[in-house]
Amino acid sequence: MPAAVRAAKVYKVFGKRAERAVKDLEAGATREEVRAYGATAAVIDVSFDVEPGEIFVVMGLSGSGKSTLIRMLNGLLVPTSGTVEVDGTDITRLKPAQLRQMRSQKVSMVFQHFALFPHRNVLENTAYGLEVRGVPVDERQHRAAQALELVGLKGWERNLPEQLSGGMRQRVGLARALAADTPIVLMDEAFSALDPLIRRDMQTQLLELQSELGKTIVFITHDLNEAMRLGDRVGVLRDGRAVQIGTAEEILNDPANDYVAQFVEDVDRTRVLTASSVMAAPIPVVGAEAGPRAALRTLRENQTSVAFVLRRDRRLVGVVHEKTIGPAVRTGQKSLDGLVDTDVQRVSPDTSVADLFAPAAESSVPLAVVDDAGRLRGVIPRVTLLAALAGNGNGNGAETADAGHDAAAAEPADTSRTEPDTAEPADTAEPAEDADASDRPAAGADPAETPAEDPADPPPDTGPAPPDAAGEERHGGQGAAR
Ligand SMILES: Nc1ncnc2c1ncn2[C@@H]1O[C@H](COP(=O)(O)OP(=O)(O)OP(=O)(O)O)[C@@H](O)[C@H]1O
Ligand SMILES: [Mg+2]
């Protein structure tokens, strides 16, 4: 399968002597040097692939070239050099009519400044992409209404854009892209006009939509936390160049240079790191078939007061506590029947660390990280959670846990001990407070992106987009969700 979107050595230079500027940049000239003769290098030698179904986030400060880059992905701008492929087709070679067709079938875009038609109501704006495609009026209104409901704008169908707040208009832009139902959606700062709570809601909705509908999404933001939350992979742009492309965790844990490192300093790690990245090997464990005597031996050897009880296929049954095992051994009980405490907090490997605090606070034993099949993948003692917050939570990472899987058969008595005491004393105050703190937006992460009150944002133009009209896309381009 070809990449959904591929950019290969893409340059976009505005202003004078663009071609020459590309040559000079290739030969090592800086942005400032080409600027001296009137060329603005907005995007410089950027290459990446976006796989079908992936959310690829492009992040960078204002002016780093994000909007320019995303506009090249649907042909609203033509690269000065390099190629852009959509679904295997080099779109830089398409004729305007082919380009329009490609957009209406494959790529919708949510614009940074909404680009709504002022004289069309919300429903008509939302149905626009379908209208362009010639979808009959009943069907397009039905689909537009559905999309509006999805973004929480049911009841606003007949209002005009000017009667909506900035955040609501942004949601209309999103609804329009959703209604168009293309496999690829480009989103330029699509959530930046929303207040934090709605914004988080929309992010969650986007993630859900993406996993339900499998859309390929290229999402632009200058909010690092948003980038890290949404992106399967994130590309960091600086002054037009891609300085790092990787998963959120790669960028966080292994920044390519000081610039990226400074950028990620403020990131809320608890939203990026997941249970699987901070979990420890599940030691000790006891086989469900074992008797109290073997269980007690395991506890003693590991100098701990609790052990996880697993079936042979590693499905988690619960935990045993020394305080109940000891007496059972003395009374000569032969099986663990009635001794296994099944009240264990289970979390999935993908749970963000931020969402682990509440279950951890409620549990006196480590959290159990279980996969879809209910198998124990690792455990998270509260100390590990605190260490992850402090930025060194990967010491007992996934590898260790995997090693644990193999080692831990029904008789894991000889496995060595990695956690001093898996049963942490209940001390809920601290983690809970930290969890609260994690809800704060990181300082400086989201410089006010003031969505201009719309007169400054002229309506989209309905005509065919001149593929490289530099002025045109400053004007909301060729309308929206095409
Ligand atoms: N049509 C244009 N003509 C001339 N220069 C342009 C044009 N569009 C963008 N630029 C320049 O290209 C650079 C990148 O702009 P771009 O809009 O892509 O940045 P951005 O990362 O989207 O910024 P923001 O976060 O503010 O939206 C800037 O220096 C900008 O001035
Ligand atoms: Mg922009």
TrEMBL record:
**Classification via PANTHER family:** GLYCINE BETAINE/PROLINE BETAINE TRANSPORT SYSTEM ATP-BINDING PROTEIN PROV (PTHR43869), GLYCINE BETAINE_PROLINE BETAINE TRANSPORT SYSTEM ATP-BINDING PROTEIN PROV (PTHR43869:SF1)
Q: Which PROSITE patterns match?
A: ABC_TRANSPORTER_1 (PS00211), ABC_TRANSPORTER_2 (PS50893), CBS (PS51371)
Q: Where is the ABC transporter domain?
A: 5-264
One GO location term (cellular component) = membrane
Which Pfam families does the record associate with it? ABC_tran, CBS
What family does this chain come from, according to its entry? Belongs to the ABC transporter superfamily.
Q: What is the lineage of its organism?
A: Bacteria, Bacillati, Actinomycetota, Actinomycetes, Streptosporangiales
Database matches in InterPro entries:
AAA+_ATPase, ABC_osmolyte_uptake_ATP-bind, ABC_transporter-like_ATP-bd, ABC_transporter-like_CS, CBS_dom, CBS_dom_sf, Gly-betaine_transp_ATP-bd, P-loop_NTPase
Q: What is this protein called?
A: Glycine betaine/proline transport system ATP-binding protein
Top-rank taxon = Bacteria
